[in-house]
Amino acid sequence: MLRKIRIAFAVAVLLLFTLSFMEIAELFPNFHIQNFQFLPALLSLNVIALVIIIGATLLFGRVYCSVLCPLGIFQDFFDWLANRKCFTRRNKKKYGFKEKNYNLHRWIWLGILLVAWLCGVTILVGLFEPYSAFGRMVSQLLRPLFGLCNNLVATIAQSKGNYDLFLVDVSLRSVFALIIAILTFLIVGHISFHHGRTWCNTVCPVGTILGFLSKYSLFKMRIDTTKCNHCGACAKKCKAYCIDSKNQNIDYSRCVSCFNCISNCKQGAMYYGLPKKGSVAIDGTDKPDAGRRDFLRSSMIVGAAVASQQIHARRTEQSGAVVSEFDKQIPLSPAGSVSHDNLNRFCTGCHMCIVNCPQHVLKPAGLEYGIGGILQPVMAFDKGYCNYDCTICSETCPAGAIKPISVEKKHITQVGHVVFNPDKCVVVKKEKSCGACAEHCPVGGIVMVKYQGYLTIPETHTEYCIGCGGCEYICPEHAVHIVGNPVHTEAQAPQEDKVEISDDFDFGF
Predict the structure, then answer these.
(1) CA 234 to CA 36: how far, in whole Å?
(2) Continuous H helices in 253-400
(3) Helices first, then strands: H and E counts in the chain
(4) Which one, of 275, 282, 274, lies nearest residue 253 by Cα?
(5) Residue 336 and residue 487 in contact, taking contact as beta carbons nearer than 8 Å
(6) Who contacts 86 (Cβ-Cβ below 8 Å, separation ≥6)?
(7) What are the pLDDT digits (tens) for 147-202?
(8) Residues 380 and 322 sit within 8 Å (Cβ to Cβ)
């Protein structure tokens, strides 16, 4: 019964997570389940979520890994698939207790990720953070596939006069993000197909932390030694390889409370609950390791020292060739991210903000922020521009990398500023009227001033510009460009009397 309840909850949670990354997410209620993912909650200091997750782990063990972690449920699907009759002959999966539990490996890997995060190489943490890994697979693989199917059906329907469905954009925004998503799918899928929850108990940082806490949980999987006959049936169905039926021990740091062992034990020796006479209460495989504590302590000290040097290096002006203001390519981070450093420190690259951006302004970064900022959201105006009143990205970020921001605050947050190259402008090149950039500026960052005869030419006022990109997106000659601010500043309030463009002007593009 417990196993069926767990599966039902897991399927529902997986469906909700999948829909939240899909094009049709706005059609369903937003339960904000992304806010209850452990590492994003830890980075954003979401106290409520942390108390719930840690409290549930101390009470019920690693139920988070079986019910709330989308990547864990993803692994369970491949583990289930491996046990179907069509695969059992080819897949020589051998369940049972693994003497070598890789505890030291897990803690060393966690220490490496901690040092990487302190050094600003957040990409390494994001690659192995389970929620972010699952989000990238859905957004980069499943979502485009759904879009292609939608467009095929919409095209057929429209050819028959039915316009209820509309075409959606399925363009490739980042080759690197697509490659990472494919590799994650293949590697995690392969490991779970052949080795169950080995990924969770070897490299997943969340699994290591919650595994440590679960050793002290109140409710656990237990063995009634008065009923156990050492048949090993429980171990044969244990996807975490944590049951030693021979010695009647359970490694609780690896147990994910899947309840497979209960349904497979014909003696009724396996049960989940409080200890009772004759049951195994704790295992002896995970005694406190002083070396592990020393390793983590040293890692934190070294990481802090390296991080301070990294931050200092970032703030040091680098020598190089002088680049004109127009040719600068400083990336733009979304409003609410505060600065490039803040985004880099907290973003795990889950792409929740990217898939929910209605204007398709955000895309996964390549090397715009440097190696440490790969896969993080960066603004690009090839598909659209940032809506003046939109704050969706700040509302959906679970890790605090894009902090909640009000519409009023966004109106005066300058994420970048406009620069203008008159040599590229259609007014100068072709002596034609345009003014499209000024028309699309909501704050008066660009106004039209007299040029020659009836012609007017753009004039920039960077003190009002907020970097929304409306001018860059609409300019037919790429004469205007938005340069990002590494640290967001406050712009002056929009002008009340910005120049209006006459309706008689001929837009020459």
Answers:
(1) 31
(2) 260-264, 290-315, 340-346, 352-356, 392-396
(3) 22, 10
(4) 282
(5) no
(6) none
(7) 899 889 999 998 888 888 888 888 888 899 999 999 999 999 999 998 889 899 88
(8) no
